[in-house]
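This protein record is not my work; I was only asked to verify it. Would you go through it and say whether the fold makes sense for this chain? Here is the record exactly as it was handed to me.
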Amino acid sequence: MAVAMSVALDQRIDEAAKKVEPSVVECRRDIHQHPELGNREFRTSKLVADKLERLGIEVRTPIAHTGVVGILRGGKPGRVVALRADMDALPVTEQVDLPFKSADTTPTSPSCSASPKCCRRSGASCREPLCFSFNPPKKVRRKVKRVAQR
């Protein structure tokens, strides 16, 4: 019986993932086409905050200049589970020929995989409190932790 429940759960997760996949891909490509260097992620942080708000997630911004924290209050009290994603791009020229390559004419590339992380994190869920942390450069972790603990 446990195996059947596990298979049914896997199928429900697969179905739910397939429903949101086009939206996640669109979001990822949008962020990829518009990379922003650290502490300049104004467009990206607005996109992330807007998406979280549309999902009914409490949003706190700006955190450490351009960071975004989303808090999803679960049905049970407990420790906070945090999912973190970087938003900053690197100051290098992207050398790929993809339809969604960076549209930025300056040497800026989302090579650090910020775009897929930002989009995937907005699809997670949990019964306990969940903190979505979309960070500018990595130096802001302590500030995000303080916000999540409030």
Summary: The chain has one domain: 2-149. The chain has a mean pLDDT of 78.
